[in-house]
Specification:
Largest sheet of chain A: none
Number of helices of chain B: 12
Distance between the termini of chain A: 27 Å
Largest interface: A-B, 23 and 28 residues
Order of helices and strands of chain B: EEEHEEHEHHHEHEHEEHEHEEHEHH
Helix content of chain A: over 70%
Largest sheet of chain B: 6 strands, mixed
Radius of gyration of chain B: 24 Å
Shape of chain B: elongated
Strand content of chain B: 25-35%
Strand content of chain A: under 5%
Helix content of chain B: 25-40%
Shape of chain A: globular
Structural class of chain A: mainly alpha
Oligomer: heterodimer
Radius of gyration of chain A: 19 Å
Number of strands of chain B: 14
Number of strands of chain A: 0
Number of helices of chain A: 12
Order of helices and strands of chain A: HHHHHHHHHHHH
Protein backbone atom coordinates (compact mmCIF):
# COMPACT_ATOMS: atom_id res chain seq x y z
CA UNK A 1 0.00 0.00 0.00
CA UNK A 2 3.10 2.16 -0.05
CA UNK A 3 2.50 2.64 -3.79
CA UNK A 4 -1.00 4.00 -3.19
CA UNK A 5 0.28 6.35 -0.48
CA UNK A 6 3.07 7.59 -2.76
CA UNK A 7 0.61 8.16 -5.61
CA UNK A 8 -1.79 10.02 -3.33
CA UNK A 9 0.99 12.27 -1.96
CA UNK A 10 2.34 13.20 -5.38
CA UNK A 11 -1.16 13.54 -6.88
CA UNK A 12 -2.25 15.94 -4.13
CA UNK A 13 0.98 17.89 -4.61
CA UNK A 14 0.38 18.19 -8.37
CA UNK A 15 -3.25 19.17 -7.85
CA UNK A 16 -2.21 21.91 -5.45
CA UNK A 17 0.01 23.26 -8.22
CA UNK A 18 -2.82 23.23 -10.74
CA UNK A 19 -5.20 24.98 -8.40
CA UNK A 20 -2.71 27.69 -7.53
CA UNK A 21 -3.62 28.97 -10.96
CA UNK A 22 -7.15 27.70 -11.74
CA UNK A 23 -7.53 30.27 -14.53
CA UNK A 24 -5.29 28.08 -16.70
CA UNK A 25 -7.82 25.24 -16.52
CA UNK A 26 -10.55 27.57 -17.77
CA UNK A 27 -8.30 29.23 -20.32
CA UNK A 28 -7.80 25.97 -22.17
CA UNK A 29 -11.59 25.74 -22.53
CA UNK A 30 -11.49 28.68 -24.90
CA UNK A 31 -10.50 26.57 -27.90
CA UNK A 32 -13.33 23.99 -27.63
CA UNK A 33 -15.84 26.81 -27.06
CA UNK A 34 -14.63 28.49 -30.24
CA UNK A 35 -15.19 25.22 -32.12
CA UNK A 36 -18.69 24.99 -30.69
CA UNK A 37 -19.64 28.53 -31.58
CA UNK A 38 -17.82 29.09 -34.85
CA UNK A 39 -17.48 25.64 -36.42
CA UNK A 40 -20.38 23.47 -35.27
CA UNK A 41 -23.03 25.55 -37.08
CA UNK A 42 -21.34 24.54 -40.36
CA UNK A 43 -22.15 20.90 -39.66
CA UNK A 44 -25.83 21.70 -39.27
CA UNK A 45 -25.89 22.57 -42.96
CA UNK A 46 -24.83 19.07 -43.96
CA UNK A 47 -28.16 17.55 -42.97
CA UNK A 48 -28.24 13.82 -42.29
CA UNK A 49 -24.83 12.26 -41.88
CA UNK A 50 -24.24 8.61 -42.71
CA UNK A 51 -22.74 6.37 -40.02
CA UNK A 52 -24.57 8.04 -37.18
CA UNK A 53 -27.30 6.05 -35.50
CA UNK A 54 -29.39 9.01 -34.47
CA UNK A 55 -29.31 12.38 -32.74
CA UNK A 56 -28.46 15.73 -34.23
CA UNK A 57 -25.29 17.51 -35.11
CA UNK A 58 -24.47 18.07 -31.45
CA UNK A 59 -24.42 14.35 -30.75
CA UNK A 60 -22.01 13.89 -33.60
CA UNK A 61 -19.85 16.79 -32.63
CA UNK A 62 -19.61 17.01 -28.83
CA UNK A 63 -18.16 13.51 -28.15
CA UNK A 64 -15.51 14.22 -30.78
CA UNK A 65 -14.80 17.64 -29.33
CA UNK A 66 -14.20 16.06 -25.92
CA UNK A 67 -11.79 13.56 -27.48
CA UNK A 68 -9.95 16.49 -29.02
CA UNK A 69 -9.79 18.15 -25.62
CA UNK A 70 -8.29 14.99 -24.10
CA UNK A 71 -5.74 14.72 -26.92
CA UNK A 72 -4.56 18.32 -26.79
CA UNK A 73 -4.77 18.87 -23.06
CA UNK A 74 -2.85 15.63 -22.39
CA UNK A 75 -0.45 16.01 -25.29
CA UNK A 76 1.33 19.09 -24.03
CA UNK A 77 1.84 18.30 -20.34
CA UNK A 78 5.40 17.14 -21.03
CA UNK A 79 6.77 20.67 -20.87
CA UNK A 80 6.17 20.83 -17.13
CA UNK A 81 8.19 17.64 -16.73
CA UNK A 82 11.09 19.19 -18.66
CA UNK A 83 11.07 22.07 -16.16
CA UNK A 84 11.13 19.54 -13.33
CA UNK A 85 14.05 17.68 -14.88
CA UNK A 86 15.99 20.92 -15.31
CA UNK A 87 15.37 22.12 -11.77
CA UNK A 88 16.64 18.78 -10.44
CA UNK A 89 13.24 17.98 -8.92
CA UNK A 90 12.96 14.63 -10.69
CA UNK A 91 16.46 13.61 -9.61
CA UNK A 92 15.53 14.57 -6.07
CA UNK A 93 12.46 12.30 -6.20
CA UNK A 94 14.46 9.47 -7.78
CA UNK A 95 16.76 9.19 -4.75
CA UNK A 96 13.90 9.06 -2.23
CA UNK A 97 12.30 5.68 -1.47
CA UNK A 98 9.25 6.78 -3.48
CA UNK A 99 8.10 4.33 -6.17
CA UNK A 100 8.91 5.39 -9.73
CA UNK A 101 5.43 4.52 -10.97
CA UNK A 102 4.08 6.95 -8.37
CA UNK A 103 6.26 9.78 -9.69
CA UNK A 104 4.54 9.39 -13.07
CA UNK A 105 1.06 8.43 -11.88
CA UNK A 106 0.82 11.42 -9.54
CA UNK A 107 1.22 13.67 -12.55
CA UNK A 108 -0.79 11.60 -15.05
CA UNK A 109 -3.77 11.36 -12.70
CA UNK A 110 -3.66 15.12 -12.12
CA UNK A 111 -3.71 15.69 -15.90
CA UNK A 112 -6.58 13.23 -16.22
CA UNK A 113 -8.53 15.02 -13.49
CA UNK A 114 -8.12 18.30 -15.35
CA UNK A 115 -9.26 16.69 -18.63
CA UNK A 116 -12.37 15.24 -16.95
CA UNK A 117 -13.26 18.58 -15.37
CA UNK A 118 -13.02 20.21 -18.77
CA UNK A 119 -15.11 17.48 -20.40
CA UNK A 120 -17.86 17.96 -17.83
CA UNK A 121 -17.80 21.75 -18.29
CA UNK A 122 -17.95 21.55 -22.10
CA UNK A 123 -20.84 19.09 -21.88
CA UNK A 124 -22.73 21.34 -19.47
CA UNK A 125 -22.31 24.25 -21.87
CA UNK A 126 -23.56 22.10 -24.77
CA UNK A 127 -26.71 20.88 -22.97
CA UNK A 128 -28.81 24.05 -23.54
CA UNK A 129 -27.98 23.84 -27.28
CA UNK A 130 -29.95 20.61 -27.44
CA UNK A 131 -27.39 17.86 -26.77
CA UNK A 132 -29.30 14.71 -25.95
CA UNK A 133 -27.43 12.83 -23.31
CA UNK A 134 -27.86 9.51 -21.56
CA UNK A 135 -26.53 10.19 -18.01
CA UNK A 136 -25.19 6.67 -17.43
CA UNK A 137 -23.67 6.66 -20.89
CA UNK A 138 -22.02 9.98 -20.18
CA UNK A 139 -20.49 8.73 -16.92
CA UNK A 140 -19.12 5.67 -18.75
CA UNK A 141 -17.74 7.85 -21.51
CA UNK A 142 -15.83 9.85 -18.88
CA UNK A 143 -13.87 6.64 -18.20
CA UNK A 144 -12.91 6.58 -21.88
CA UNK A 145 -11.87 10.26 -21.83
CA UNK A 146 -9.78 9.49 -18.76
CA UNK A 147 -8.07 6.62 -20.61
CA UNK A 148 -7.37 8.94 -23.55
CA UNK A 149 -5.98 11.54 -21.17
CA UNK A 150 -3.71 8.90 -19.60
CA UNK A 151 -2.48 7.80 -23.03
CA UNK A 152 -1.69 11.31 -24.24
CA UNK A 153 -0.02 12.57 -21.10
CA UNK A 154 2.04 9.37 -20.84
CA UNK A 155 3.23 9.86 -24.42
CA UNK A 156 4.02 13.49 -23.70
CA UNK A 157 5.99 12.63 -20.55
CA UNK A 158 7.76 9.81 -22.35
CA UNK A 159 9.07 12.13 -25.05
CA UNK A 160 9.92 14.75 -22.44
CA UNK A 161 12.10 12.14 -20.70
CA UNK A 162 13.74 11.20 -24.00
CA UNK A 163 14.43 14.73 -25.28
CA UNK A 164 14.67 16.77 -22.06
CA UNK A 165 14.25 19.84 -24.28
CA UNK A 166 11.30 22.04 -25.23
CA UNK A 167 12.64 22.53 -28.74
CA UNK A 168 12.29 18.84 -29.59
CA UNK A 169 9.13 18.10 -27.61
CA UNK A 170 7.00 20.81 -29.24
CA UNK A 171 7.35 19.66 -32.88
CA UNK A 172 7.07 15.99 -31.87
CA UNK A 173 3.78 16.48 -30.05
CA UNK A 174 2.45 18.74 -32.81
CA UNK A 175 3.30 16.09 -35.37
CA UNK A 176 1.54 13.43 -33.30
CA UNK A 177 -1.60 15.21 -32.15
CA UNK A 178 -2.72 16.41 -35.58
CA UNK A 179 -2.92 13.03 -37.37
CA UNK A 180 -4.25 11.38 -34.20
CA UNK A 181 -7.14 13.82 -34.04
CA UNK A 182 -7.81 13.93 -37.81
CA UNK A 183 -7.76 10.14 -38.11
CA UNK A 184 -10.17 9.73 -35.21
CA UNK A 185 -13.14 11.22 -37.05
CA UNK A 186 -13.47 13.89 -34.42
CA UNK A 187 -15.51 16.41 -36.39
CA UNK A 188 -17.00 14.22 -39.08
CA UNK A 189 -17.43 10.46 -38.89
CA UNK A 190 -14.84 8.45 -40.81
CA UNK A 191 -17.73 6.68 -42.49
CA UNK A 192 -17.73 9.64 -44.85
CA UNK A 193 -14.09 9.05 -45.78
CA UNK A 194 -12.69 7.15 -48.77
CA UNK A 195 -11.72 3.57 -47.95
CA UNK A 196 -7.95 4.16 -47.61
CA UNK A 197 -8.62 6.87 -45.07
CA UNK A 198 -11.02 4.61 -43.17
CA UNK A 199 -8.28 1.95 -42.97
CA UNK A 200 -5.82 4.52 -41.62
CA UNK A 201 -8.43 5.46 -39.03
CA UNK A 202 -8.61 1.81 -37.94
CA UNK A 203 -4.98 1.85 -36.77
CA UNK A 204 -5.69 4.90 -34.64
CA UNK A 205 -6.85 3.80 -31.17
CA UNK A 206 -8.58 7.13 -30.64
CA UNK A 207 -11.03 6.46 -33.48
CA UNK A 208 -12.41 3.59 -31.38
CA UNK A 209 -12.78 6.00 -28.50
CA UNK A 210 -14.75 8.46 -30.64
CA UNK A 211 -17.07 5.70 -31.93
CA UNK A 212 -17.62 4.31 -28.43
CA UNK A 213 -18.38 7.66 -26.80
CA UNK A 214 -20.86 8.62 -29.55
CA UNK A 215 -22.81 5.43 -28.82
CA UNK A 216 -22.57 5.99 -25.07
CA UNK A 217 -23.98 9.52 -25.34
CA UNK A 218 -27.01 8.03 -27.13
CA UNK A 219 -27.36 5.27 -24.55
CA UNK A 220 -26.86 2.46 -27.14
CA UNK A 221 -25.22 0.24 -24.51
CA UNK A 222 -25.46 -2.94 -26.56
CA UNK A 223 -23.46 -1.51 -29.44
CA UNK A 224 -20.25 -3.51 -29.84
CA UNK A 225 -18.23 -0.34 -30.52
CA UNK A 226 -18.44 0.50 -26.82
CA UNK A 227 -16.75 -2.72 -25.70
CA UNK A 228 -14.14 -2.38 -28.44
CA UNK A 229 -13.44 1.20 -27.31
CA UNK A 230 -12.84 0.17 -23.70
CA UNK A 231 -10.58 -2.74 -24.63
CA UNK A 232 -8.49 -0.84 -27.20
CA UNK A 233 -7.98 2.25 -25.03
CA UNK A 234 -7.44 0.23 -21.85
CA UNK A 235 -4.70 -1.90 -23.42
CA UNK A 236 -3.16 1.15 -25.05
CA UNK A 237 -3.12 3.11 -21.77
CA UNK A 238 -1.33 0.30 -19.91
CA UNK A 239 1.18 -0.20 -22.73
CA UNK A 240 2.00 3.49 -23.08
CA UNK A 241 2.33 3.93 -19.32
CA UNK A 242 4.92 1.15 -19.13
CA UNK A 243 6.81 2.67 -22.04
CA UNK A 244 6.98 5.96 -20.14
CA UNK A 245 8.02 4.21 -16.94
CA UNK A 246 10.79 2.53 -18.95
CA UNK A 247 11.98 5.96 -20.12
CA UNK A 248 12.04 7.24 -16.53
CA UNK A 249 14.05 4.23 -15.36
CA UNK A 250 16.39 4.67 -18.30
CA UNK A 251 17.11 8.22 -17.22
CA UNK A 252 18.51 6.87 -13.96
CA UNK A 253 21.03 4.51 -15.52
CA UNK B 1 31.93 -3.13 5.98
CA UNK B 2 35.44 -3.00 7.32
CA UNK B 3 37.02 -0.55 9.76
CA UNK B 4 34.06 1.82 10.02
CA UNK B 5 34.12 3.08 6.46
CA UNK B 6 30.89 4.67 5.30
CA UNK B 7 31.75 4.49 1.63
CA UNK B 8 34.01 1.92 0.03
CA UNK B 9 34.48 1.58 -3.69
CA UNK B 10 36.60 -0.75 -5.72
CA UNK B 11 37.36 -0.03 -9.36
CA UNK B 12 34.10 1.94 -9.58
CA UNK B 13 33.60 2.87 -13.19
CA UNK B 14 31.16 4.78 -15.38
CA UNK B 15 31.26 5.04 -19.14
CA UNK B 16 28.78 6.82 -21.36
CA UNK B 17 28.12 6.05 -24.97
CA UNK B 18 27.15 9.01 -27.06
CA UNK B 19 26.24 9.00 -30.72
CA UNK B 20 27.46 11.78 -32.91
CA UNK B 21 26.42 11.61 -36.57
CA UNK B 22 26.10 7.86 -36.27
CA UNK B 23 29.57 7.45 -34.77
CA UNK B 24 29.59 5.85 -31.36
CA UNK B 25 31.81 7.65 -28.93
CA UNK B 26 32.66 6.17 -25.57
CA UNK B 27 33.34 8.61 -22.77
CA UNK B 28 34.99 7.25 -19.65
CA UNK B 29 33.65 9.63 -17.02
CA UNK B 30 34.96 7.66 -14.04
CA UNK B 31 37.85 5.30 -14.75
CA UNK B 32 37.77 2.77 -11.93
CA UNK B 33 38.30 4.54 -8.62
CA UNK B 34 39.00 3.19 -5.14
CA UNK B 35 37.56 5.26 -2.32
CA UNK B 36 37.31 4.92 1.43
CA UNK B 37 35.32 7.49 3.37
CA UNK B 38 35.55 7.14 7.15
CA UNK B 39 32.60 7.52 9.47
CA UNK B 40 32.12 11.04 10.78
CA UNK B 41 34.55 12.85 8.50
CA UNK B 42 34.10 15.51 5.85
CA UNK B 43 35.50 14.01 2.70
CA UNK B 44 36.11 16.33 -0.25
CA UNK B 45 36.43 15.60 -3.92
CA UNK B 46 38.49 18.38 -5.45
CA UNK B 47 38.85 18.79 -9.18
CA UNK B 48 37.96 20.86 -12.22
CA UNK B 49 34.68 20.67 -14.14
CA UNK B 50 34.30 17.38 -15.96
CA UNK B 51 36.69 15.51 -13.68
CA UNK B 52 34.01 12.91 -12.86
CA UNK B 53 33.14 14.18 -9.37
CA UNK B 54 29.41 14.56 -9.95
CA UNK B 55 29.17 11.28 -11.81
CA UNK B 56 30.75 9.50 -8.86
CA UNK B 57 28.27 11.11 -6.49
CA UNK B 58 25.35 10.25 -8.74
CA UNK B 59 26.43 6.61 -8.62
CA UNK B 60 26.82 6.66 -4.84
CA UNK B 61 23.35 8.20 -4.44
CA UNK B 62 21.79 5.44 -6.65
CA UNK B 63 20.86 7.99 -9.31
CA UNK B 64 23.13 6.23 -11.79
CA UNK B 65 24.19 2.63 -12.14
CA UNK B 66 27.93 2.00 -12.32
CA UNK B 67 29.30 0.43 -15.49
CA UNK B 68 31.80 -1.62 -13.56
CA UNK B 69 33.42 -2.22 -10.19
CA UNK B 70 31.75 -2.50 -6.82
CA UNK B 71 30.82 -0.21 -3.98
CA UNK B 72 29.31 -0.33 -0.53
CA UNK B 73 27.52 2.63 0.98
CA UNK B 74 26.77 2.33 4.71
CA UNK B 75 27.50 -1.36 4.23
CA UNK B 76 24.84 -1.79 1.55
CA UNK B 77 25.65 -2.97 -1.94
CA UNK B 78 25.34 -0.08 -4.40
CA UNK B 79 23.55 -2.12 -7.04
CA UNK B 80 21.61 -4.74 -5.09
CA UNK B 81 20.48 -2.73 -2.07
CA UNK B 82 19.49 0.60 -3.57
CA UNK B 83 16.32 0.86 -1.48
CA UNK B 84 18.30 0.72 1.78
CA UNK B 85 20.81 3.28 0.54
CA UNK B 86 18.01 5.70 -0.42
CA UNK B 87 16.55 5.45 3.06
CA UNK B 88 19.79 6.36 4.86
CA UNK B 89 21.64 8.65 2.47
CA UNK B 90 20.85 12.30 1.70
CA UNK B 91 21.86 13.68 -1.69
CA UNK B 92 21.86 17.35 -2.63
CA UNK B 93 22.64 17.75 -6.32
CA UNK B 94 24.16 20.86 -7.82
CA UNK B 95 20.78 22.14 -8.96
CA UNK B 96 19.19 21.20 -5.64
CA UNK B 97 15.82 20.06 -6.85
CA UNK B 98 13.43 22.06 -4.71
CA UNK B 99 10.03 22.59 -6.32
CA UNK B 100 10.31 26.22 -7.40
CA UNK B 101 6.56 26.79 -7.59
CA UNK B 102 5.90 25.61 -4.03
CA UNK B 103 6.88 27.23 -0.75
CA UNK B 104 9.87 26.03 1.22
CA UNK B 105 7.54 24.64 3.88
CA UNK B 106 5.49 22.69 1.31
CA UNK B 107 8.72 21.27 -0.12
CA UNK B 108 9.92 20.12 3.29
CA UNK B 109 6.60 18.55 4.30
CA UNK B 110 6.27 16.59 1.04
CA UNK B 111 9.89 15.44 1.20
CA UNK B 112 9.39 14.16 4.76
CA UNK B 113 6.19 12.36 3.75
CA UNK B 114 7.95 10.71 0.80
CA UNK B 115 10.26 9.11 3.36
CA UNK B 116 7.25 7.55 5.04
CA UNK B 117 6.73 10.13 7.79
CA UNK B 118 3.06 10.82 8.59
CA UNK B 119 1.50 14.22 7.87
CA UNK B 120 1.56 15.56 11.44
CA UNK B 121 5.17 14.58 12.15
CA UNK B 122 6.20 15.80 8.70
CA UNK B 123 4.83 19.24 9.47
CA UNK B 124 6.63 19.23 12.80
CA UNK B 125 9.99 18.26 11.34
CA UNK B 126 9.55 20.84 8.56
CA UNK B 127 9.21 23.50 11.27
CA UNK B 128 12.22 22.11 13.12
CA UNK B 129 14.39 22.21 10.03
CA UNK B 130 13.20 25.70 9.16
CA UNK B 131 14.44 27.02 12.49
CA UNK B 132 17.57 24.84 12.55
CA UNK B 133 18.69 26.27 9.19
CA UNK B 134 17.42 29.77 10.08
CA UNK B 135 14.80 29.82 7.34
CA UNK B 136 11.70 30.76 9.34
CA UNK B 137 11.55 34.29 7.90
CA UNK B 138 11.15 33.07 4.32
CA UNK B 139 10.01 29.45 4.59
CA UNK B 140 6.40 30.22 3.61
CA UNK B 141 7.40 32.11 0.48
CA UNK B 142 7.46 30.47 -2.95
CA UNK B 143 10.94 29.10 -3.65
CA UNK B 144 11.48 30.98 -6.92
CA UNK B 145 11.63 34.21 -4.88
CA UNK B 146 14.60 32.93 -2.81
CA UNK B 147 18.15 34.24 -3.06
CA UNK B 148 20.89 31.78 -4.03
CA UNK B 149 21.94 31.33 -0.41
CA UNK B 150 18.38 30.84 0.84
CA UNK B 151 17.66 28.25 -1.85
CA UNK B 152 20.87 26.38 -1.01
CA UNK B 153 19.88 26.19 2.64
CA UNK B 154 16.51 24.76 1.67
CA UNK B 155 18.19 22.25 -0.69
CA UNK B 156 20.39 20.99 2.14
CA UNK B 157 17.44 20.85 4.55
CA UNK B 158 15.56 18.77 1.95
CA UNK B 159 18.51 16.38 1.78
CA UNK B 160 18.62 16.13 5.57
CA UNK B 161 14.94 15.82 6.48
CA UNK B 162 15.04 12.03 6.90
CA UNK B 163 18.10 12.30 9.20
CA UNK B 164 20.51 10.41 6.94
CA UNK B 165 23.81 9.06 8.27
CA UNK B 166 25.62 10.15 5.12
CA UNK B 167 25.11 13.40 3.22
CA UNK B 168 26.32 13.79 -0.36
CA UNK B 169 26.73 17.44 -1.38
CA UNK B 170 27.52 18.22 -5.02
CA UNK B 171 29.27 21.59 -5.21
CA UNK B 172 27.34 23.06 -2.29
CA UNK B 173 28.66 26.61 -2.61
CA UNK B 174 29.12 27.06 -6.35
CA UNK B 175 27.67 30.39 -7.44
CA UNK B 176 27.11 31.72 -3.92
CA UNK B 177 28.29 35.06 -2.53
CA UNK B 178 31.14 34.97 0.04
CA UNK B 179 28.79 35.56 2.98
CA UNK B 180 26.49 32.67 2.06
CA UNK B 181 29.52 30.44 1.50
CA UNK B 182 30.89 31.20 4.96
CA UNK B 183 27.45 30.55 6.45
CA UNK B 184 27.14 27.20 4.67
CA UNK B 185 30.60 26.14 5.78
CA UNK B 186 29.52 26.69 9.37
CA UNK B 187 26.34 24.68 8.76
CA UNK B 188 28.29 21.81 7.22
CA UNK B 189 30.69 21.77 10.18
CA UNK B 190 27.68 21.65 12.52
CA UNK B 191 26.31 18.64 10.65
CA UNK B 192 29.67 16.97 11.11
CA UNK B 193 29.61 17.63 14.85
CA UNK B 194 26.16 15.97 14.90
CA UNK B 195 27.93 12.82 13.75
CA UNK B 196 26.94 12.90 10.08
CA UNK B 197 29.47 11.83 7.48
CA UNK B 198 29.71 14.34 4.65
CA UNK B 199 31.03 13.70 1.18
CA UNK B 200 31.22 16.87 -0.88
CA UNK B 201 32.59 17.84 -4.26
CA UNK B 202 34.13 21.21 -4.92
CA UNK B 203 36.26 23.06 -7.40
CA UNK B 204 37.34 25.58 -4.77
CA UNK B 205 40.66 24.98 -3.07
CA UNK B 206 39.89 27.19 -0.10
CA UNK B 207 36.68 25.26 0.51
CA UNK B 208 38.44 21.90 0.44
CA UNK B 209 41.21 23.28 2.64
CA UNK B 210 39.00 24.82 5.32
CA UNK B 211 36.26 22.23 5.44
CA UNK B 212 37.59 18.78 4.66
CA UNK B 213 39.31 16.21 6.85
CA UNK B 214 40.30 14.21 3.81
CA UNK B 215 40.69 15.38 0.24
CA UNK B 216 40.86 13.32 -2.92
CA UNK B 217 42.02 15.20 -5.98
CA UNK B 218 40.24 14.02 -9.09
CA UNK B 219 41.14 14.72 -12.69
CA UNK B 220 40.06 13.08 -15.95
CA UNK B 221 37.99 10.44 -14.16
CA UNK B 222 40.78 9.31 -11.88
CA UNK B 223 41.79 9.96 -8.30
CA UNK B 224 45.28 11.35 -8.38
CA UNK B 225 46.06 11.57 -4.69
CA UNK B 226 44.24 11.30 -1.37
CA UNK B 227 45.20 12.69 2.03
CA UNK B 228 44.55 15.32 4.68
CA UNK B 229 45.01 18.91 3.46
CA UNK B 230 48.28 19.09 5.43
CA UNK B 231 49.63 15.83 4.03
CA UNK B 232 48.86 16.95 0.51
CA UNK B 233 50.55 20.31 1.00
CA UNK B 234 53.58 18.72 2.63
CA UNK B 235 53.85 16.36 -0.31
CA UNK B 236 54.62 19.36 -2.50
CA UNK B 237 57.87 19.69 -0.58
CA UNK B 238 57.90 22.54 1.88
CA UNK B 239 57.39 26.28 1.69
CA UNK B 240 58.36 28.69 -1.01
CA UNK B 241 60.61 31.68 -0.34
CA UNK B 242 60.94 34.30 -3.03
CA UNK B 243 63.82 36.78 -2.82
CA UNK B 244 63.80 39.66 -5.27
CA UNK B 245 66.90 41.59 -6.33
CA UNK B 246 67.52 44.66 -8.45
CA UNK B 247 68.56 42.71 -11.56
CA UNK B 248 68.61 39.23 -13.04
CA UNK B 249 72.40 39.27 -12.96
CA UNK B 250 72.48 39.77 -9.20
CA UNK B 251 69.75 37.18 -8.75
CA UNK B 252 71.87 34.61 -10.62
CA UNK B 253 74.84 35.35 -8.36
CA UNK B 254 72.62 35.01 -5.29
CA UNK B 255 71.36 31.68 -6.63
CA UNK B 256 74.93 30.43 -6.94
CA UNK B 257 75.70 31.47 -3.38
CA UNK B 258 72.53 29.89 -2.00
CA UNK B 259 73.21 26.68 -3.89
CA UNK B 260 76.57 26.50 -2.12
CA UNK B 261 75.49 27.36 1.40
CA UNK B 262 71.86 26.36 1.98
CA UNK B 263 70.00 23.06 2.06
CA UNK B 264 66.84 23.28 -0.01
CA UNK B 265 64.71 21.09 -2.22
CA UNK B 266 64.49 23.19 -5.35
CA UNK B 267 65.84 26.47 -6.61
CA UNK B 268 64.86 28.46 -9.64
CA UNK B 269 65.51 31.99 -10.84
CA UNK B 270 63.10 33.91 -13.00
CA UNK B 271 63.83 37.52 -13.90
CA UNK B 272 65.22 39.14 -10.76
CA UNK B 273 63.65 36.68 -8.33
CA UNK B 274 65.02 33.52 -6.77
CA UNK B 275 62.41 30.90 -5.82
CA UNK B 276 63.47 28.47 -3.13
CA UNK B 277 61.45 25.48 -2.07
CA UNK B 278 62.49 24.75 1.46
CA UNK B 279 61.39 23.02 4.67
CA UNK B 280 60.51 25.20 7.65
CA UNK B 281 60.42 28.37 5.60
CA UNK B 282 59.39 30.53 8.51
CA UNK B 283 62.51 29.72 10.57
CA UNK B 284 64.90 29.72 7.61
CA UNK B 285 63.87 33.10 6.28
CA UNK B 286 65.80 35.30 8.81
CA UNK B 287 68.97 33.21 8.30
CA UNK B 288 68.71 33.64 4.56
CA UNK B 289 68.29 37.39 4.86
CA UNK B 290 71.30 37.61 7.19
CA UNK B 291 73.38 35.54 4.73
CA UNK B 292 72.40 37.81 1.85
CA UNK B 293 73.19 40.89 3.90
CA UNK B 294 76.59 39.52 4.97
CA UNK B 295 77.58 38.91 1.34
CA UNK B 296 76.41 42.37 0.27
CA UNK B 297 73.42 41.26 -1.77
CA UNK B 298 70.73 43.91 -1.61
CA UNK B 299 67.43 42.07 -1.13
CA UNK B 300 64.63 44.28 -2.38
CA UNK B 301 61.77 42.05 -1.45
CA UNK B 302 61.22 38.81 0.43
CA UNK B 303 58.12 36.65 0.46
CA UNK B 304 57.22 33.41 2.19
CA UNK B 305 54.30 31.25 1.14
CA UNK B 306 52.95 27.98 2.41
CA UNK B 307 52.05 25.58 -0.39
CA UNK B 308 48.41 25.75 -1.42
CA UNK B 309 46.23 22.98 -2.75
CA UNK B 310 46.74 24.64 -6.09
CA UNK B 311 50.45 23.80 -5.81
CA UNK B 312 49.36 20.25 -5.02
CA UNK B 313 47.12 20.14 -8.07
CA UNK B 314 49.90 21.65 -10.18
CA UNK B 315 52.42 19.09 -8.95
CA UNK B 316 50.25 16.07 -9.72
CA UNK B 317 48.51 17.18 -12.92
CA UNK B 318 50.95 19.66 -14.38
CA UNK B 319 48.08 22.16 -14.63
CA UNK B 320 46.78 24.87 -12.37
CA UNK B 321 43.29 24.49 -10.97
CA UNK B 322 42.93 28.28 -11.01
CA UNK B 323 43.62 28.34 -14.74
CA UNK B 324 41.11 25.52 -15.27
CA UNK B 325 38.46 27.50 -13.43
CA UNK B 326 38.90 30.50 -15.69
CA UNK B 327 38.27 28.52 -18.86
Amino acid sequence: MKLLRDIRLLYMDSMRHSFKNPMLIFLSLFQPLMFMLLYMPLLGGLGAVPGITGGGTLNLFIPGLLVMQAIFEGGFVGFSLIDDIRSGLINRLLVTPVSRSAILLGKILRDTTVVLMQCVLITLVALPFGLSLNPVGFLLSLVLYALMGIIMSSISYGFALIYKSDDSLAPTMNTLTLPISLLAGIFLPLALAPLWLQYLGKINPFSYGVDATRELFMGNFLNVNILVGFVVLGVMAVAVFYWTLYQLNKMAK
Amino acid sequence: MSSGNVIETKELKKTFTSKERGNKRIVEAVKGIDLAVRKGEIFGFLGPNGAGKSTTQKMLSTLMLPTGGAAKVLGFDLVKEQAEIRKHVGFVSQSGGADLAASGAENLVLQAQLFGIDAVSAKKSAEEFASRFQMTSFIDRVVNTYSGGQKRRLDIALGMIHNPQLLLLDEPTTGLDPQSRAYLWEEIKKLKSDGITIFLTTQYMDEADKLCDTIAIMDHGQIIITGTPEQLKDSVGGDTIILTFSSEEIAKKAEALLTEQVIFERIQTTDASVHLTIKNGERTMPDLLRLMDGCNFQVQGAMLSRPSLDDVFLKYTGRSLREEAKQ
